[in-house]
């Protein structure tokens, strides 16, 4: 028998437990769990551990007692589904832990509304920031959210409305399997003004439009799709250059990205769509540029982009270490930015620099060589077809150098 048995339990308490789970509780000398879980077993006469507040301290106590006693831990639903299970494994050791799961809250929620959930996105906002939710929604038709006090169902609905996301049916499942179970459907607008929802809830979002299809992840927008500083059209990275630069960044779905000199935010926004489970920091010093960048983030629904107002490299202090760094503008501090970025870049991370002027080309190349890197360099010269009366001619864009290094 394992030293720690983790038993999944629902709001129906002992009624929903299997004989194996009940046997694990009966044989235990220590019973741990939340207050409502422990209340299901008033007859238990061994030591009790209330898991509340400092969870890590409670799990350390469980690990300590498991050296001498059999410990049973009560947890909601499936303990390995956004639950305490993984923390117990880390503290006690996988070989010493056994799990007896119950259906998760998400399973119960979908079963109550009679909707299949093998194609649903699952997102926990319990103790996590809501930023990034909107970006994820751009690729899903069905999503289940676990909530908390800060990210309550009403707050989630208000956040959706701030990005114009109203084309959803929202079903709130409260106190699943308990005596006060309640299932209600809302529009986004209705839920935003609804109070009194139980803290024990699952929020399910279903698209109203059953024929909706997500945009392809790797669709790159033309410059006209973005608000930008006019007449300074050169302050947005051209589509063809964006394609090559983003490819060089080697972005994964969970990457952390710095976009230095973000301008209109086109690179940040398209990087964010690729890194839908990651985060993008758009660093920009110009107040007008910041306003335009935020407009574009709202319009393109990429809330995993955070705009950072300031001049690099000073503005980069305190940001989480990136997997990829793009430098589109430097305001005369290119050498310092390269040094700082390579220092903070994660191992094997990619640094990409776009340089238009000969001065920046020379400075970028020399800085990389001084640091012991031989960069990949591409000179990109693009010409686009332009109509001239009944003919088609070519109009050349500014040539641009793309430098790329991978951190040693």
TrEMBL record:
<dbReference type="InterPro" id="IPR035996">
    <property type="entry name" value="4pyrrol_Methylase_sf"/>
</dbReference>
<dbReference type="Pfam" id="PF02475">
    <property type="entry name" value="TRM5-TYW2_MTfase"/>
</dbReference>
<dbReference type="InterPro" id="IPR029063">
    <property type="entry name" value="SAM-dependent_MTases_sf"/>
</dbReference>
<dbReference type="InterPro" id="IPR014776">
    <property type="entry name" value="4pyrrole_Mease_sub2"/>
</dbReference>
<feature type="domain" description="Tetrapyrrole methylase">
    <location>
        <begin position="4"/>
        <end position="192"/>
    </location>
</feature>
<dbReference type="Pfam" id="PF00590">
    <property type="entry name" value="TP_methylase"/>
</dbReference>
<keyword id="KW-0808">Transferase</keyword>
<keyword id="KW-0169">Cobalamin biosynthesis</keyword>
<dbReference type="GO" id="GO:0008276">
    <property type="term" value="F:protein methyltransferase activity"/>
</dbReference>
<dbReference type="GO" id="GO:0000179">
    <property type="term" value="F:rRNA (adenine-N6,N6-)-dimethyltransferase activity"/>
</dbReference>
<dbReference type="InterPro" id="IPR050714">
    <property type="entry name" value="Cobalamin_biosynth_MTase"/>
</dbReference>
<keyword id="KW-0489">Methyltransferase</keyword>
<protein>
    <submittedName>
        <fullName>Precorrin-6y C5,15-methyltransferase (Decarboxylating) subunit CbiE</fullName>
    </submittedName>
</protein>
<dbReference type="InterPro" id="IPR000878">
    <property type="entry name" value="4pyrrol_Mease"/>
</dbReference>
<dbReference type="InterPro" id="IPR014777">
    <property type="entry name" value="4pyrrole_Mease_sub1"/>
</dbReference>
<keyword id="KW-0949">S-adenosyl-L-methionine</keyword>
<feature type="domain" description="TRM5/TYW2-like methyltransferase">
    <location>
        <begin position="252"/>
        <end position="352"/>
    </location>
</feature>
<dbReference type="InterPro" id="IPR014008">
    <property type="entry name" value="Cbl_synth_MTase_CbiT"/>
</dbReference>
<dbReference type="InterPro" id="IPR056743">
    <property type="entry name" value="TRM5-TYW2-like_MTfase"/>
</dbReference>
<dbReference type="InterPro" id="IPR012818">
    <property type="entry name" value="CbiE"/>
</dbReference>
<dbReference type="InterPro" id="IPR020596">
    <property type="entry name" value="rRNA_Ade_Mease_Trfase_CS"/>
</dbReference>
<dbReference type="GO" id="GO:0009236">
    <property type="term" value="P:cobalamin biosynthetic process"/>
</dbReference>
<comment type="pathway">
    <text>Cofactor biosynthesis; adenosylcobalamin biosynthesis.</text>
</comment>
<dbReference type="InterPro" id="IPR006365">
    <property type="entry name" value="Cbl_synth_CobL"/>
</dbReference>
């Amino acid at each position: 028998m394992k030293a720690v048995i983790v038993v999944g339990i629902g709001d129906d308490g002992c009624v929903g437990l299997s004989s194996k789970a009940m046997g694990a509780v009966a044989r235990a000398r220590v019973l741990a769990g939340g207050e409502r879980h422990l209340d299901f077993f008033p007859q238990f006469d061994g030591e009790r551990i209330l898991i509340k507040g400092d969870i890590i301290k409670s799990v350390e106590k469980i690990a300590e007692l498991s050296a001498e006693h059999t410990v049973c831990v009560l947890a909601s639903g499936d303990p390995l589904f956004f639950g305490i299970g993984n923390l117990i494994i880390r503290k006690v050791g996988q070989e010493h832990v056994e799990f007896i799961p119950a259906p998760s809250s998400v399973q119960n929620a979908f079963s109550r509304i009679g909707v299949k959930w093998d194609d649903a996105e699952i997102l926990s906002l319990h103790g996590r920031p809501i930023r990034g939710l909107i970006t994820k929604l751009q690729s899903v038709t069905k999503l289940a959210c676990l909530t908390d006090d800060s990210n309550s169902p009403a707050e989630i609905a208000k956040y959706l409305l701030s990005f114009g996301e109203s084309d959803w049916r929202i079903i709130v499942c409260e106190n699943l399997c308990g005596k006060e179970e309640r299932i209600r459907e809302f529009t986004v607008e209705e839920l935003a003004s609804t109070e009194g929802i139980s803290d024990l809830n699952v929020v399910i979002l279903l698209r109203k439009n059953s024929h909706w299809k997500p945009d392809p992840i790797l669709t790159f927008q033309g410059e006209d799709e973005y608000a930008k500083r006019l007449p300074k059209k050169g302050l947005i990275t051209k589509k063809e250059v964006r394609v090559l630069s983003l490819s060089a960044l080697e972005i994964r779905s969970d990457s952390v990205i710095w976009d230095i000199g973000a301008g209109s935010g086109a690179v940040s926004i398209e990087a964010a769509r690729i890194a839908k489970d990651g985060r993008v920091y758009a660093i920009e010093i110009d107040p007008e540029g910041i306003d335009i960048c935020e407009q574009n983030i709202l319009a393109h629904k990429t809330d995993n982009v955070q705009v950072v107002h300031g001049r690099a490299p000073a503005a980069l202090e305190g940001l989480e270490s990136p997997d990829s760094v793009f430098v589109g503008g430097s305001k005369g501090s290119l050498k310092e930015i390269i040094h700082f970025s390579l220092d903070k870049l994660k191992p094997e991370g990619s640094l990409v620099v776009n340089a238009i002027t000969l001065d920046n080309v020379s400075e970028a190349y020399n800085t990389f060589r001084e640091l012991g890197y031989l960069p990949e360099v591409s000179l990109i010269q693009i010409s686009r077809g332009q109509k001239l009366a009944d003919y088609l001619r070519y109009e050349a864009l500014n040539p641009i150098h793309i430098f790329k290094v991978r951190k040693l």
